[in-house]
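pinning this so it doesn't scroll away 📌
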Amino acid sequence: QVQLVESGGGSVQAGGSLKLSCVASGFIRFCGMEWYRQALGEEREFVSSISRIGTTTYADSVKGRFTISRDNDKNTLYLQMNSLKTDDTAVYYCVANCASNFWGRGTQVTVSS
């Protein structure tokens, strides 16, 4: 069982930056890690992933603006978000793809114009 706790969300103006963190209760070294988000009234959507060996993927909507990274020694996943847009407003979830999938409870990101 892996518990995930996201932090770093908040309110920011368009064009600003935020850095999300996700701290895992267990070792995530052998897990693929992902960020998802869900805007109010919308379906949950993939944002970014990073494999065990550091291979990264991004949704087209965030490519070039967001950077995913991980620190296995700290059991922590990060998402650096730059040039934020109002469309980035959502609850952001951390996911660990281990033998099972584990989800955090999410952190709210609100981008105002």
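📌 and the second one:
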Amino acid sequence: VQLQASGGGSVQVGGPLTLSCVASGSSFRLIDMGWYRRAPGSQRELVADVQDDGNTNYVDDVKGRFTISRNSAKNTLYLQMNSLKSEDTAVYYCAKPSDGYWGKGTQVTVSS
């Protein structure tokens, strides 16, 4: 199983960006997956995750701005990010920690 994240880049404060994470492996299920980030000088933190039943969780700082979603037919997990702040600058990772799967990160840089 491989998780390939993409969609990172540079964006201005207030702008949008959507991250994608494609999971390889026909038997892979997009459950209990999440997006994590590590900002410079900080520890990795959970940004958002989606449970088997479809319930989602978000870190307080991104509530109302970020949306996690999945497309099982495409084996793809998304993170739609709106109203980006400079504090959102980080390397973002998609992961299924319960199974030990982590993708390589994608850099998001938000500047004014």
